[in-house]
Every structure is written in C-alpha cells, then in structure tokens.
C-alpha cells in the first residue's frame, strides 16, 4: 500500500491468476474484470458454478470471490444494468438508490470547464454505451433533469450533444487526426472573472491554462492538527537586542532546532557555528529573548529556499548579518 507500483503489481498478479485458474474453465462464455468487479457469462449449471467458486477461493488465502447472480435476467455491473434477452444483451445506465442529481451548480464560483465536466461525461457515456432508442431517450431526460436542477438550461445539453456528434463524425471520416501543437501548460487558481481575463492573455501568448480551486476535499476534510510554525523549515531572522543588527538565514530543519543551535554557539563561544553568535561575541552584546526570533517564510529545502533567503537579505541589506 502506498507504493506507485502497487496497482501494477496487483494487476499483473490477477492477470496471471485469471489465466491459470479462471478463463481456462470451459463453462465461461466471456469474462471481464475492472479492478475488483468481475462479470462472467456462465453456460454450466448452478451446481457447477458453486464448485467452480469453491475451487478458486481455495487457490490463495488472500484472494476471495463473492457471487452475485442475475435477478429477472438482469445484473448491475459498474454503471450499467445488463439484461439478458434471448441471445443478446440489453444495456441501460445504472444509478445507485442513494444517487442524487447534484453536480457543481451553475451559480458556483468555479471555472466553466469544471461545471460542464460532469455533463461531458454523461453525454460521452450516452454515445458510447449501445443503448436502445427507449433507454437512450430515458437517459437523455435524466441528463436534462440534472442540468435543470443545478441551474443549467437544456440548450447546454443540446449544444454538448451536437459537439459530440460532430466529433464522432469527424473521427469516422478522418482516420488520422492532425497532431496538436505542443503548448506550455500552466496551472492557475480560479478567483472569478479576473482569472478568465488572465487566462485569455496567456492563451494569446501560447500558454495553455488549466484552472484549479482552493476548496478541495483535502483542504476541507483535513482533520490533522496544524503543525506549529516553529516545527517547520524555511527562512528566518534574528534581531540583536542592543544594536538592532538583523541576521537572515535559512534552515532545512525546523526553526526551533536552528534557534537552539544559535544559542548553543553563543553559550559555548563557538562563532564558527553561527554568524549571529559571532556578532554577539565580537561586540559583547547579549543574546536577545526568544521573541526576537521571527519566521519569514516556510519552505522545504531546495532552490526556492535559497531564493527566498537572498530576497530577504536584499530587503535588509543595510543592516544585515548574512549566513
């Protein structure tokens, strides 16, 4: 868990498991798996199915399968309801009983691309899944209802459908798509109309803009205790209590540890460990109290930390003891 290789290794393991123990069964007409959801068309008897299930559940202690049979010739798989009808399958869109019609409202302060993203998804599914005419119209009415419930008009859905139809026709007529010109992509926090103006200016100069928002679930639902600023790293300054000379420095460790190093260097008369301690020892000044220690920027170690330190040194260049 947590490793980028975990999903890949799990998929390789399951692929090998399936080839050795599942797809070799002669009673399986077809077998499809998406992550941990599997659908099988079984041509044998119920008793043979139970025997097969018990067999694959004994292969590995950590790999267990559960069985869900069709009800009235229908089975829900992912976002589809698949109905067995004579020698064919009939598809329709499945939504859980807890499903709501809520998407990003039209009045929300979000980029337009974010607002219509859900409808792009619904319409793409509408064209991709082989629905009957009746199920197509039923799903289309649901999409209309979702749009109206969230402040959008039906014309928006109609325009998106026309756009999708043109895209499908273009792909069917032209097998080779023209290569898009590589553009530099920049991320920009969305703050309203002003962000749109900035984005238009950037696009005119060949910079493709992708909007982002600050009100993410990670920020809203973060229940972790906030780390005290003294326990972070970054750029800090110390002020001499007697001559008001300013020391600006950076630290990759936390500020509290770095302040103790300054104090230890002064107390042990070791000026090589701290430029600020050297100043105090050379001038005979006393070490200032803890409140003269100020955090200027919090930042992890790297190029940005060095740049921030140099900027703060330039700001206080007239009266600064640099690291």
TrEMBL record:
Domain Reverse transcriptase: 1-96
Listed InterPro entries: GIY-YIG_endonuc_sf, HTH_animal, RT_dom
Domain of life: Eukaryota
PANTHER family membership: REVERSE TRANSCRIPTASE (PTHR21301), REVERSE TRANSCRIPTASE DOMAIN-CONTAINING PROTEIN (PTHR21301:SF10)
Protein name: Reverse transcriptase domain-containing protein
């Amino acid at each position: 868990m947590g490793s980028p290789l975990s999903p890949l290794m799990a998929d390789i393991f399951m692929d090998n498991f399936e080839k050795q123990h599942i797809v070799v069964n002669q009673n399986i007409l077809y077998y499809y798996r998406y992550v941990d959801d599997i659908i099988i068309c079984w041509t044998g008897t119920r008793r043979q199915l139970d025997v097969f299930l018990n067999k694959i559940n004994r292969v590995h202690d950590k790999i267990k399968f559960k069985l869900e049979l069709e009800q009235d010739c229908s089975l829900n798989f992912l976002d589809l309801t698949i109905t067995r009808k004579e020698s064919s399958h009939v598809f329709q869109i499945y939504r859980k009983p807890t499903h709501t019609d809520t998407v990003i409202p039209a009045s929300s302060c979000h980029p337009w691309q974010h607002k219509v993203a859900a409808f792009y998804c619904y319409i793409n599914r509408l064209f991709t899944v082989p629905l009957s005419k009746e199920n197509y119209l039923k799903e289309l009415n649901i999409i209309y209802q979702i749009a109206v419930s969230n402040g959008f008009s039906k014309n928006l859905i109609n325009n998106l459908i026309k756009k999708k139809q043109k895209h499908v026709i273009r792909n069917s007529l032209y097998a080779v798509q023209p290569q898009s010109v590589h553009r530099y992509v920049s991320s920009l926090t969305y703050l309203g109309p002003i962000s749109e103006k900035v984005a238009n200016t950037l696009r005119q100069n060949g910079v493709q803009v992708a909007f982002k928002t600050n009100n993410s679930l990670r920020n809203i639902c973060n229940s972790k205790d906030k780390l005290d600023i003294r326990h972070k790293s970054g750029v800090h300054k110390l002020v001499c209590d007697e001559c008001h000379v300013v020391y600006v420095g950076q630290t990759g460790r936390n500020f509290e540890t770095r302040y103790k190093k300054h104090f230890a260097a002064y107390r042990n008369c070791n000026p090589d460990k701290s430029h600020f301690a050297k100043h105090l020892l050379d001038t005979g000044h006393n070490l200032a109290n803890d409140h003269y220690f100020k955090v200027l920027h919090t930042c992890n170690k790297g190029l940005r930390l060095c740049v921030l330190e140099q900027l703060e040194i330039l700001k206080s260049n007239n009266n600064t003891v640099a690291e």
